[in-house]
Prior knowledge:
By secondary structure, this protein is of the alpha/beta class. The chain contains four helices and six strands; from the N terminus they run βββαβαβαβα. The chain has a six-stranded mixed β-sheet, sandwiched between helices.
Amino acid sequence: MSDDLWTYQIPPRPTGTPRLSARLTHLEPDITLCTVTNGIQPGSGLTLGEALSAARYDDNPHLVVDLSAITSLDSTALFLLLEAGHNYRRDDRGHCAVVARPKLPGIPEIYAIALTVTLDVHHTLASARHACTSSP
C-alpha cells in the first residue's frame, strides 16, 4: 500500500541545489511512512514539522521516518524528530522508528548520537517496519 497522503518540496535554491522534500505514505494499514530527502537546512524545518504533524493526526498508531536519503540535518530538524518520538511514547499511541544510515554525512556527530540514544533507529526500512509491527 503506498498512497500519497501529503507531499511538499521547498523550491530549489537559486544555485539549483535541491531542498528538503517530505512525503507521507501508508507503509501498511497502521504505519505511516515519512520519507525525507535532500538536505535539511535552516528554514526547512517547517516542512518537516508539517509532515510529522500530519502523520500524527492521520490515525495510524505507528510512524517510520526515513532519513536514509538526507544530506544534512540541522538542530531544528533534530528537535522535531525528538519531539515526534516523545509524542508517540507520551500518548502511548504506538511506535516511532527512524531509518538512518550508520554514518550520516553532513550530520554532526552529536546529532547522530542524540537520535540513536533517544529514538528507535534502524539501518533499513524493513527493520523499522518490523519494529513497528512487533510493538504493542
